[in-house]
Amino acid sequence: MKKTKKAPDGFEFDDSEWNNENDSTENAASVKSPVEYPSDTPDMIPDTNAEIKALRKSMAEGMDKEKLDKSKAVNPNFWFAVYFQDEEQKNEFLKNTGLQDKTKGQFVNGLDLAKAVNIPLTKKSFEIPKKIRSFTI
Fold it and tell me: By C-alpha distance, which of 86, 85, 113, 84 is closest to 98?
C-alpha cells in the first residue's frame, strides 16, 4: 500500500518514489546540497542564481562524460581496412576463412577475424553507446 502525505492545503500526495522508507531526517540533513547558497538567509535572486549555477555545473559534468563516450564511439583508431585486387578475391578470402556469413555489409568483426586466423585476443566488455545529444550551455 502506498503511503500518502497530506499537505497543509489538504492535497494528498505519494512521495514513495522520492523518499526511501529507510531514510530519516538525520540522513537527509547529512546530504550536502550541490547548491552553494550565498547566505543562510533566503533571498530569491541570489538563491536562484546559485541554483542555476549548480544546474549548469551538473549538466556540464554530464556533457563531459557524454563527450568522452562520443569520442570513443566515433574514434577511427579502432579499425583498419583490408583490400584485395578484386571482389572475387575478397569473396574467396571470406569463404576460406569462414567469414562469408559474418560480414555486415563490408565489415567483419575483429574478434571473428582473429578467431578465423587463430590469433588470440582478449574480449573486452563493451557498452553500446546511447544516443548522443549535442547542445551548448
Answer: 113
Give the distance from CA 13 to its chain's centroid.
Answer: 32
Nearest alpha-carbon partner for 103 in 82, 128, 127, 77: 82
Q: What is the spatial distance between Cα 122 and Cα 31, in angstroms, rounded to a whole number?
A: 42
Provide the 10 A C-beta neighbour count for residue 49: 13
d(CA 93, CA 85): 11
pLDDT one-digit tens code per residue, 16-33: 555 555 555 555 556 677
HSE of 39, CA atoms in CB hemisphere, 13 A: 6
Joined together, the cell numbers standing for residue 68 give 568522452
**Entry pTM:** 0.43
Average pLDDT, the chain: 77
Neighbour tally for 11: CB within 10 Å = 9
Cell numbers 502506498 label which residue?
2
